[in-house]
Specification:
The complex is a heterotrimer of chains A (about 550), B (about 70) and C (about 500).
Chain A: H1 9-25, H2 53-78, H3 83-94, H4 96-102, H5 105-113, H6 118-145, H7 153-157, E1 159-162, E2 179-182, H8 185-194, H9 198-208, H10 217-227, E3 238-240, H11 246-259, E4 263-265, H12 275-296, H13 302-328, H14 336-349, H15 353-371, E5 382-387, H16 397-405, E6 407-412, H17 427-439, H18 451-454, H19 457-463, E7 468-474, H20 478-481, H21 484-494, E8 497-503, H22 513-527
Parallel strand pairs in A: 1-2, 1-3, 3-4, 5-6, 5-7, 7-8
Helix pairs in contact in A: 2-3, 2-6, 3-4, 4-8, 6-14, 6-15, 9-10, 10-11, 12-17, 13-15
Chain B: H1 2-27, H2 30-49
Chain C: H1 7-13, H2 20-27, E1 31-35, H3 42-45, E2 50-54, H4 64-70, H5 76-87, E3 95-99, H6 103-114, E4 124-128, H7 136-158, H8 164-186, H9 197-209, H10 212-227, E5 239-245, H11 251-258, E6 262-269, H12 288-299, H13 308-324, E7 329-335, H14 339-356, E8 360-365, H15 372-393, H16 403-494
Parallel strand pairs in C: 1-2, 1-3, 3-4, 5-6, 5-7, 7-8
The chains are: A alpha/beta (about 550), B mainly alpha (about 70), C alpha/beta (about 500).
C-alpha cells in the first residue's frame, strides 16, 4: 500500500523559496543537470540554460544580442560601411570556411561558457568577443582585397599574407600603410573551433591527391584549403615559416605551387637556446624586411615598429598579471578555454586595438574578483595544467570538465609560449628580442630545441599550483609522440596524476569528443575514485554538433 | 504632444515585443536550430556543387628568383 | 655478371653497426662518432683520431622497446635506431653528433642525451642547428655551428686536431672515397650497366658506416675490377629506374625492385650517393671549414629547404638525374610517418610525370620491408607500364605531335593500309584469273585429246566396220557364188 505524501505549509514555503532562488540565482551546480538540455547528437539545446535572472539576462543582452549586433556592426566597420554586408554575402557564397563557420558563432560561445556564472562568465565572454571581432577584421580585409571577388586592386597591393605561425610583429614597421593577414588563421584555425565540420573537407582534399593520412592533420587541412581553391587572392606576396613541424615545411611546398607568388621563407631556427642562433635569426628578419620593402615599395618605419612593440609589451605585462592571479589565488575569473584561445590568438597576432580594449574590461573584472575575493569556480577539486597541443574541435573540454568533475584548467602550454617583453631602446636590442620572440612560436617553444623545454611542465605545475595534468596526446604529432614514453616514466616517478587525452587536432573522426569524455570519466572514477558533480554530463552524444 | 506620446507608446510596445521574441529565440535556441537544420545543409550543398579551379593544373615554374638580401 | 670480389664481405659489414672494421678502428684507439643526417658533415668526423659511423639498425623489424618510448606513430627508422641503442648495439659509440633536422631522429638522439642508454662513460651527445636556406646568412650560420658544435667539441672532449691541415687531410681522404664512388657509380650510366643498383647500394653504404681508411682498399680494387667487368650477354632487366626519396639504408629494397625486371641506376635518397659523393673543392681564399660548410649546404637536396627557388629546383634536379643516368622511370619512396617526404613524394608524383614526362611511381615503405609482397606487385606493375611506354617511344624520340599531325599521320596510315589491302586483293584476283586460264587451257587440252581419241577410236571402229563389211561382202560373194555353183549342180542333176 503506497503511503500518501502529505505536504506541510513549511514544505510548500521551502519549495517556493527554492524556486524563487533558482529563478534569481540559478540552480546550485550539483542540481543543474546540464546534460538534459541537449538535443541528442546535435549539441543544440532544447532550451538554453537558465543561469539565474541576472546571469541569464546578462547572457542574453551582453553576450547573445551584443555579439550578434556586433557581428553585423563589425562587418560594416571593417568592410567600408554599407558595402560591407554585400561583400560579406559574396564571401559567404564563395568560401566554405566563411559561410559554414560564421553563422554558428554564438554556439561557440555557448559551448565555451556553459554553466558559468558571475564574473567568470563576464570575463570569459569578453575574450570570446575579442576573438570574433579580430576574426571579422581579418576576413573583411581579405574580402576587400580578394581578386576572386573583384576586390580593390589598391587594397590588394597593400595587403601581405603570411603563415599563421609567423608573428604579426614582423610587419609592425608598415602597420600604418600595409596590413598583414595570416593565410590560415581564419580559414583553418578559427574555423575548427567554431564549426568542426568544415575542416574535414580540407583534410579529405589533401588526401585525395595522394598525401598519406599520417602527417599532422593541421598541415593537411592547410594544404587542403589550397587544393580546394578556397583561398582568397588577397595579397601580392607571402612570408612563410617552418613552424610548427616538418609537416608545415611540406605544406609550404604545396602552397607555394598553388599560390605561385613571390615567397620569402623565414624559418625559425630549432636550437634557440644557442646564442649563436640569435644572430642568424635576426639577419633573417632583416632580410624579410627588405623583401617587404621590395614587394610593396613602402619603406621600413622604426617609429611604427617601436610604437607597436611598446603596445604589445603592455599586453604582455597584463598577461603576467593574469598569470600571477591564476597561479596564486582562487580568484582568477577566466576559464580554461578562453585563456587558451585568447592568449594564442593575441600573442601570435600581435598588437591590435581590440586586445587592448578587452584587456581593459577584463582588468576591471580581475581586480574586482581579487579585491572582493570572488571565486568563479568554487567547486574546483583539482587545479589542472593542460600540456602539449589541444584538440581544436574540443577546446571547450575545460568547461565540460569543470561542470562535470570540478577539474579547473588553470593554464595551458600554448599560453606560456611567449613569456617576454621586447626591448625598444636600441635597434640591436629590439632585433635580438624580436628574433627570440619569433623563435618561440606557438606549439614550438616547448617542442623543439631540446627535451628540457617540454619538461618545463614540472616548473609550471609548481608555479601555478596545479595537482593534475591534462596531457594532450596529438596522435599525429611526431614531436610529441616521440617523447611519449619518457612522460609516462616521469609521471610515475613524480607520482603525478595525468590524464592522456588522445586527439587529432582538427579531425574529430579520429577520436570523438565523446571518446575524450569517456577517457576522463574512466580516470576520474577508477583512479581518483570521485563522483561527478553533474552526472548528466558523463555521457551524451554530440557527434554531429558544431 | 499626444501624437508623440502615442508614437513612443507604439515604439515601446514594438521594441518590447521584439525583445520578447528575441528572448524566445535565444532561450529555445531557435537560432541554433535554424542554422543547424536549415542554413548549414543548404550552404554545404552549395559548396559541394560549386565549380572550382583545379590548382594542380597550375604550371610548376622552376625559374623563380632567389629572394636573398646581403647588403 | 662476374661476382665482385668484395661484395660478400661488404654485405657482411652491413649486418651490424659495430662491424669488424669499426672494431679494428676502435682497437687502434680512435673515437667512433655516430650521426644520422647528411647535414652533419662526415668529413669533419673523419679527422685523424676519430671516424664517422652513420647509424643504421639492420634487421630491426619490431622495435618493441622503442615503441614504448616513441609510440607506434613515429618513423620506423628513428624507432629502430632507438631499439638498437636500447639493445646495446651502439655501445661502441664515443659520441653522437646530432642535428635537429627531422623530428623523429632528433627525438631519438635526445633520448640518447637524456637517458643513460649508451654504456660508455665518456659518451656525449652534441646538437647543432642547421639552417633551412642556402643564403650567405645561412652559410655563415652553418659554418659557425660546425665550428662550435663539432670541431670545438671534438677538440675539447677528445683532443682531436682540428687545424686546417688536419681538415685538408680529411678532405683529401674524403675526396678519394667520393672519386671512387662516383667512378663506380658511373658504370650505371652505360647502355647496359656493368653494376647493379643493389651492388652499388652495398658499396655506398659501407663508405658511410665504416672507417674510410679501412674501406678505401676495397673500393680501389672494386673500381679496378669494374673497368673490365663484362655485362651479361642478355640483360636480366627490362627498364632502368632511378630511386629517390627518404631515408633508405636497406639494399634489399633496391634488390626487391631489381627482382621485378628493373635495374636501379640512380640513388637520390638519404644514404644514397646523389647528392653526397661529390668532391669537396676548397676554393682560393677559402678555409677548409668554409669549403665544407658551403659544400654540404649547396649540394643537399633535402626537402627541408624552404626558399621558393630551391623548393622548385629540386624537381628539376630529380629530372636531370633521371636523364643523366638514362632512367626510363622514377620511384619516389618515403618512410611511413616521414612528414617531409610525404609531401615531397606526393608533389613529385604529380609534377615529375606531368612536367618532365618521366613515369613516376610513388611508394610508402617501412624501414625494413617485411611486407615485400605488396611492394613487389606495385613494382612489377610499374615496370610493365614503363616498359610499354618505352616500347611505344622507341621508334622516334621526337617531340609530342600536335593533334593535327596525329590525325594526318593516322589518315596516311589508314590510306596506306587500304592501298596495301587493295593491292593484295588485286594480286589475288589476278592470280585467280591466271589459275582459271590455266585450268581452262588444261581442260581444253584434255577435251581435244579426248576428241582425238574418240575420233581415232571412231576411225578405228569405222575401219573395223568397213573391214567387217568388206569381209562380209566377200563372204556374201563367196556364199553367192557357192549357192550359184550348188544351183547349177542341182539343175544338172535334175536334168
Amino acid at each position: 500500500m503506497s503511503e500518501k505524501k502529505t505536504y506541510t505549509r513549511q514544505d510548500v514555503m521551502n519549495k517556493v523559496k527554492s524556486l524563487a532562488s533558482d529563478f534569481w540565482n540559478g540552480k546550485p551546480h550539483e542540481e543543474r543537470r546540464l546534460g538534459d538540455l541537449y538535443v541528442d547528437k546535435t549539441g543544440l539545446y532544447k532550451h538554453r540554460e537558465w543561469r539565474g535572472f541576472r546571469d541569464t539576462m546578462y547572457y542574453f543582452n551582453m553576450i547573445w544580442l551584443y555579439n550578434y549586433g556586433h557581428m553585423v556592426g563589425d562587418i560594416m566597420k571593417y568592410g567600408g560601411g554599407l558595402k560591407g554586408p554585400i561583400l560579406f554575402a559574396k564571401g559567404v557564397w564563395r568560401y566554405r570556411w566563411l559561410g559554414q563557420s560564421y553563422l554558428p558563432v554564438m554556439h561557440w560561445f555557448d559551448r565555451g561558457l556553459e554553466g558559468m556564472r558571475g564574473e567568470g562568465l563576464r570575463a570569459s565572454a569578453w575574450h570570446y568577443r575579442a576573438m570574433v571581432s579580430e576574426t571579422i577584421r581579418q576576413f573583411m580585409r581579405m574580402l576587400q582585397a580578394d581578386q576572386n571577388l573583384g576586390g580593390d586592386p589598391e587594397i590588394w597591393k597593400k595587403t601581405l599574407a603570411h603563415d599563421e605561425t609567423v608573428w604579426g610583429g614582423i610587419f609592425y614597421p608598415w602597420r600604418d600603410r600595409i596590413d598583414d593577414v595570416p593565410l590560415q588563421m581564419i580559414p583553418y584555425f578559427v574555423t575548427c573551433h567554431v564549426n568542426n565540420h568544415v575542416v574535414l573537407n580540407y583534410i579529405d582534399a589533401a588526401q585525395s591527391i595522394g598525401l598519406p593520412g599520417d602527417p599532422c592533420p593541421m598541415c593537411q587541412a592547410e594544404a587542403g584549403i589550397f587544393i580546394l581553391d578556397d583561398v582568397p587572392d588577397y595579397f601580392p606576396a607571402v612570408v612563410t615559416s617552418n613552424e610548427a613541424c616538418d609537416g608545415s615545411v611540406g605544406t609550404s611546398v604545396l602552397q607555394d605551387w598553388m599560390m605561385n607568388k613571390p615567397l620569402f621563407a623565414m624559418p625559425q631556427p630549432m636550437q634557440f637556446d644557442d646564442p649563436l642562433v640569435q644572430e642568424h635569426c635576426a639577419r633573417e628578419i632583416e632580410e624579410c624586411w627588405k623583401f617587404i620593402e621590395e614587394q610593396t615599395g613602402e619603406t621600413f618605419s622604426w617609429d611604427e615598429l617601436v610604437k607597436h612593440l611598446e603596445r604589445q609589451n603592455e599586453l604582455q605585462r597584463f598577461e603576467w598579471e593574469k598569470w600571477e592571479v591564476a597561479a596564486n589565488t582562487d580568484y582568477y575569473p577566466i576559464n580554461g578555454v578562453s585563456q587558451a584561445l585568447y592568449r594564442i590568438y593575441q600573442s601570435q597576432d600581435g598588437d591590435r586595438d581590440i586586445w587592448h580594449e578587452t584587456d581593459e574590461r577584463v582588468r576591471k573584472i580581475l581586480e574586482k574578483c581579487v579585491e572582493n575575493k570572488i571565486n568563479s569556480y568554487p567547486l574546483t577539486r583539482h587545479r589542472v595544467i593542460a600540456w602539449s597541443c589541444a584538440p581544436l574541435y574540443y577546446s571547450h573540454w575545460c568547461t565540460w570538465a569543470y561542470n562535470c568533475w570540478g577539474l579547473n584548467c588553470i593554464i595551458n602550454m600554448d599560453s606560456l609560449m611567449f613569456d617576454m617583453t621586447i626591448r625598444t631602446d636600441t635597434y640591436e636590442n629590439t632585433l635580438q628580442d624580436m628574433a627570440l620572440y619569433h623563435e618561440w612560436a606557438p606549439m614550438r617553444r616547448m617542442a623543439v630545441g631540446g627535451m628540457h623545454h617540454i619538461f618545463e611542465l614540472w616548473e609550471y605545475m609548481e608555479k601555478f599550483h596545479c595537482d593534475m595534468v591534462m596531457m594532450y596526446d596529438q596522435l599525429q604529432c611526431k614531436g610529441m609522440q616521440g617523447v611519449h614514453g619518457l612522460f609516462e616514466d616521469e609521471f610515475r616517478a613524480r607520482n603525478i596524476h595525468a590524464i592522456w587525452m588522445p586527439h587529432a587536432l582538427p579531425d574529430k573522426r579520429t577520436v570523438s569528443r565523446s571518446e575524450i569524455r569517456s577517457i576522463v570519466n574512466d580516470y576520474m572514477t577508477t583512479i581518483m575514485h570521485e563522483e561527478p558533480l553533474d552526472p548528466t554530463l558523463l555521457e551524451f552524444d554530440d557527434s554531429e554538433g558544431w | 504632444m499626444r501624437a508623440l506620446l502615442k508614437t513612443l507608446k507604439i515604439l515601446f510596445f514594438l521594441c518590447t515585443g521584439l525583445y520578447i521574441i528575441l528572448f524566445i529565440v535565444f532561450f529555445f535556441d531557435l537560432d541554433g536550430k535554424a542554422l543547424f537544420y536549415g542554413v548549414e545543409p543548404f550552404l554545404s550543398n552549395h559548396y559541394d556543387r560549386m565549380k572550382r579551379k583545379d590548382p594542380l593544373e597550375k604550371i610548376y615554374r622552376t625559374d623563380t628568383p632567389n629572394y636573398e638580401y646581403n647588403d | 655478371m662476374k661476382d665482385l670480389k668484395h661484395l660478400i664481405r661488404m654485405e657482411n659489414l652491413l649486418q651490424q653497426a659495430n662491424n669488424e672494421l669499426v672494431q679494428e678502428a676502435k682497437e687502434e684507439g680512435r673515437k667512433a662518432l655516430g650521426y644520422t643526417c647528411y647535414f652533419m658533415p662526415e668529413v669533419l668526423l673523419d679527422l685523424p683520431g676519430c671516424f664517422s659511423v652513420r647509424l643504421r639498425a639492420p634487421n630491426c623489424t619490431t622495435p618493441v622497446m622503442a615503441t614504448y618510448y616513441m609510440s607506434g606513430r613515429t618513423c620506423h627508422y628513428g624507432r629502430s635506431l632507438m631499439e638498437r641503442a636500447l639493445e646495446g648495439g651502439f655501445n661502441f659509440l664515443d659520441a653522437q653528433m646530432a642535428t635537429e633536422t627531422c623530428t623523429v631522429t632528433c627525438r631519438f638522439q635526445e633520448h640518447l642525451q637524456r637517458m643513460d642508454i649508451i654504456q660508455n662513460p665518456d659518451f656525449f651527445v652534441e646538437f647543432m642547428d642547421v639552417p633551412f636556406k642556402k643564403t650567405e646568412n645561412s652559410l655563415l650560420h652553418y659554418r659557425k655551428q660546425l665550428q662550435a658544435h663539432v670541431l670545438d667539441k671534438l677538440h675539447e672532449k677528445f683532443g682531436i686536431d682540428t687545424s686546417d691541415e688536419a681538415l685538408m687531410k680529411a678532405i683529401q681522404q674524403h675526396n678519394e672515397v667520393c672519386r671512387l664512388i662516383t667512378e663506380i657509380g658511373s658504370y650505371r650510366k652505360l647502355d647496359i650497366p656493368t653494376i647493379t643498383g643493389y651492388e652499388f647500394a652495398v658499396i655506398q653504404l659501407t663508405t658511410l658506416t665504416c672507417p674510410k681508411d679501412k674501406i678505401l682498399p676495397m673500393l680501389r680494387e672494386t673500381a679496378e675490377e669494374l673497368k673490365t667487368r663484362k655485362p651479361d650477354a642478355k640483360p636480366t632487366w627490362k627498364v632502368k629506374l632511378a630511386l629517390a626519396g627518404a631515408e633508405n639504408d636497406d639494399p634489399d629494397f633496391t634488390k626487391l625492385i631489381e627482382s621485378c625486371g628493373a635495374i636501379v641506376v640512380a640513388d637520390r635518397y638519404c644514404y644514397g650517393s646523389l647528392p653526397g659523393r661529390e668532391e669537396i673543392v676548397v676554393q682560393e681564399g677559402e678555409t677548409p671549414l668554409e669549403a665544407i660548410a658551403r659544400h654540404y649546404l649547396i649540394t643537399s637536396c633535402c626537402p627541408r629547404f624552404m626558399p621558393q627557388d630551391i623548393m622548385r629546383a629540386r624537381k628539376k634536379y630529380l629530372a636531370d638525374v633521371c636523364r643523366e643516368y638514362n632512367a626510363d622511370g622514377l620511384i619516389v619512396e618515403s618512410n611511413k610517418f616521414c612528414e617531409y617526404w610525404s609531401y615531397e613524394r606526393t608533389i613529385d608524383a604529380l609534377v615529375i610525370p606531368r612536367d618532365f614526362d618521366i613515369p613516376t611511381c610513388s611508394i610508402e615503405k617501412e624501414y625494413i620491408n617485411s611486407a615485400s609482397g605488396q611492394l613487389r606487385t606495385r613494382f612489377q606493375a610499374f615496370v610493365e607500364s614503363v616498359e610499354l611506354k618505352k616500347l611505344h617511344k622507341e621508334p622516334a624520340a621526337k617531340e609530342e605531335p600536335t593533334l593535327k599531325e596525329m590525325v594526318e599521320s593516322r589518315i596516311e596510315e589508314k590510306v596506306e593500309q587500304i592501298e596495301d589491302h587493295i593491292d593484295d586483293r588485286l594480286v589475288k584476283v589476278e592470280n585467280k584469273i591466271s589459275d582459271i586460264e590455266e585450268k581452262r587451257q588444261g581442260v581444253k587440252g584434255v577435251i581435244e585429246e579426248k576428241v582425238e581419241q574418240i575420233e581415232d577410236h571412231i576411225g578405228d571402229q569405222l575401219v573395223k566396220v568397213e573391214t567387217a563389211i568388206s569381209d562380209f561382202e566377200e563372204k556374201r560373194q563367196e556364199v553367192k557364188e557357192t549357192i550359184k555353183k550348188k544351183g547349177q549342180r542341182k539343175t544338172r542333176s535334175e536334168r
